[in-house]
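Table S2 (continued). Query chain:
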Amino acid sequence: MEKTLRGVGVSHGVAIGQVRHMGTAVLEPPATQIPTEDAPREQARAQAAVEAVAADLIARGNLAGGEAQAVLEAQALMAQDPELMADVSRRIAVGSSAERGVYDAFAAYRALLASAGEYLAGRVADLDDVRNRIVARLLGVPMPGVPDSDEPYVLFARDLAPADTALLDPTLVLGFVTEEGGPTSHSAILARAMGVPAVVALPGAADVAEGTVVAVDGSSGDVLVEPSTEKQEELRRIAAERKAALAASSGPGATSDGHRMPLLANVGGPGDLPAALEAGAEGVGLFRTEFLFLDDSAKAPTEEKQVEAYRKVLEAFPEGRVVVRVLDAGADKPLDFLTPADEPNPALGVRGLRTLLEHPEVLRTQLRALATAAEGLPVHLEVMAPMVADRKDAKDFAEACREAGLSAKFGAMVEIPSAALRARSILQEVEFLSLGTNDLAQYAFAADRQVGALARLQDPWQPALLDLIAFAAEAAQAEGKSCGVCGEAASDPLLAVVLTGLGVTSLSMGAASIPYVRTALGKYTLAQCRRAAEAARAADSAEEARAAAQQVLSGE
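Corresponding output:
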C-alpha cells in the first residue's frame, strides 16, 4: 500500500528502485582473556589491522578525489591516532585480544567525543566506521559496506560513513536514504558532489523492508513506499522534464530580467575541477584548502607543494574569480601541529582564523604561496578568512595579507552571528563577505550540523538565518562591496531565488547543483525574487518560509 515518508532532501533528482540495506555493523568481539606471552603478537595484529584500514581509506580517497579525499584522509588519521593506539596496546597488555582491545579503546574514545559538545559528537559516526573496519579485519569477516548487487538499487542505511559514500557507484546506486544525518553532514555534501538523489534524517528508514520498491525525491525529501505504476510514471515524466530543462540551461547565472548572479563552484582541490567546468561554473566561490594539510597532520605542507596545488585551481579559470579560504583547522578538522587536543569544546574554541593568528608562520606561508601561485595569471584571486568574529579579526587578517605581499582582494567569512550583525564594521577592514550558511546556522541555533535529530534547526530556510543573511547583504550593499553565499544553502534552487532577493551578489555550490540553480533563477525577475524573500522572512518556521516563497513565485 502506497505511503509517503518525509525526510530532508539533500541532493536533487528522483530515484525509483528496490531497497537494499547497508550491511550490519560488526558484532561485539568476545571478552576473552589471552595469556600474557601472547600480548606482543596481539599488539602486532592490532597495529597491522590499523595500518591496513588507514591505507584502505587513503586509497579510497585517492580514487574519489576532491571533497571525499579530504574526509577519508581525516578518517585515516583518526584510525592512527597515537593516544588511541596506546590505549589499545595497554588493554592488550592486561589480557584483551587485539579485536577486543580495539573495540574497548574506541568505545572509551567514543564516549569522550559524545560528551565533548555537539560538534564533536557528530564525529561519532566516522569513529564507529573506523572501529568496524579494524575489528572486521581482525575477525576475518567482510568489511561493513554497501551491499553487493548486479542490479541498480536504492541504498537504505542508519547512516553512511564517508568511506562508503565516496565510492558509491552511481550506475548501481540510484539514490540513498539515511535515518540519521543532516543537510550539511559529510554524506549529504558528498551526495551533492556526486549528483546522486539523497534523503537524510528519515524516521523509520530502517523499517522499510528489503526489496520494497520506493521512489526517492531528493529535492522535496519525500520517499514514496510502494508507489503505484501510475505514480512511478508520473515521477519519471517529471524527472525527464527536469533533465531536459537542465540540458537547455547554459551561460552565466541571471534572473529573467537580466540581473546577473554569478554561479560559482565549491571545490576541495584540483580533483573537483572537471565537474565544475562541465557544469559551467563561472569561477570558484569556495576553495577549501584543508585537503592539502590533511596529507600529514604532523606538519604543514611546504610552500612549494602549496604553490603547485593552488596554481592548478587558478589556471582552470583564466580571467575568472577564484575565492580561496585559508586553512580552517580545529573542531572536526584537527591537525596535530596546530590544534590543541584538550579543548573542552573545540567548536567554540581555537579554530579557523583564531588558530592561524596563534600560528602566524602557517598563515604567512599559505598567503605567500597563494601570491606566488597567482603570478602571471589573469585570474581574479580573492582570499578570505574563516570564523571571523569582529572587526579586530578582520583587521588582523587584512594586515597579514598585506605583509605577505598579497595583491588579491581579501575578505571575511560570515559564519558567526556576531559577524552578520556587525558586518558593516567588518567591511571597514576587508573588501568582501562570504556567508558560510552551514556554520552560521549551527552557531545561530546551537544545533550541530551532523546531528540528524536537529535537522529542523539546520534547515537554511529558517527565517532567523534569512535575517542574518539579509543583515550582511544590506551592510555590503551600503559599503559598495560584495557579499556571496558559499554554504550549502546556495545549492537549493528555490532558496537561491530567495537569496538573490535578499541581496547577495554571488552563489557558490557543489558543481552538480549549478544547472538546477541556473534554471530556477532564469524563471523569475529580480522583483519576484525580492517579494519571495520578503515573504520567507515574514514566516515563523522553515516550512512556512519555503511555502510562502513558493506561493509568491507561483503567483497564487
